[in-house]
């Protein structure tokens, strides 16, 4: 069941990133297998190139959005402050990335990620996720990445 009441979640409590590296503005929906996020591209974004969000910025956005699917399982459901755990996550492989368009400063992109596979060892979690990023309902990025996540 999707959690659509995520307005009280401060995404910066759940990601280790801070400005200017934080590439998710808000979580729109999240459940055990998927997440939908929003990112407003501001002129302060460090991943800009000639007024557009660069390829590396689009990949970082997809990675931060996707990590929320598995990362949320390390927190209690009512931990809206993100104090329950400290996580470190790494992209262990970029399996596929297709970029069809670079969005402009001022644009809002929507990224949807889905869990493909997950393996918990007790110390680390290995997972594979696919993500798609949209600008005005038009697909601009499609990617598949592997992650390694562990508590510190």
Model description:
It comes from Aequorivita aurantiaca. The structure is a single chain. About 10% of the residues lie in helices and about 45% in strands. With about 150 residues, it is mainly β. Strand 6 and strand 7 (about 125-135) form a beta hairpin. The protein starts with about 25 loop residues before the first strand and ends with a strand.
Look at the structure and give the CATH class.
Alpha Beta
Structural class: mainly beta
How large, in whole angstroms, is the Cα Rg?
A: 15 Å
The shape is globular
Name the helix and strand elements from N-terminus to C-terminus, one letter apiece: EEEEHEEEE
| Contiguous helical run count | 1
The total tally of domains equals 1
Helix amount: 10-25%
User: Uncertain regions: pLDDT < 50 for 5+ in a row?
Assistant: none
Which range does the strand content fall in? 35-45%
Level-2 CATH architecture:
Roll
What does the average pLDDT come to? 85
User: What is the CATH topology descriptor?
Assistant: Thiol Ester Dehydrase, Chain A
Describe the oligomeric state of these chains in a short phrase: single chain
What is the CATH H-level superfamily?
Hotdog Thioesterase
Distance between the termini: 29 Å
Number of strands: 8
Order of strands in the sheet with most strands: 1-2-6-7-8-5
Largest sheet: 6 strands, antiparallel
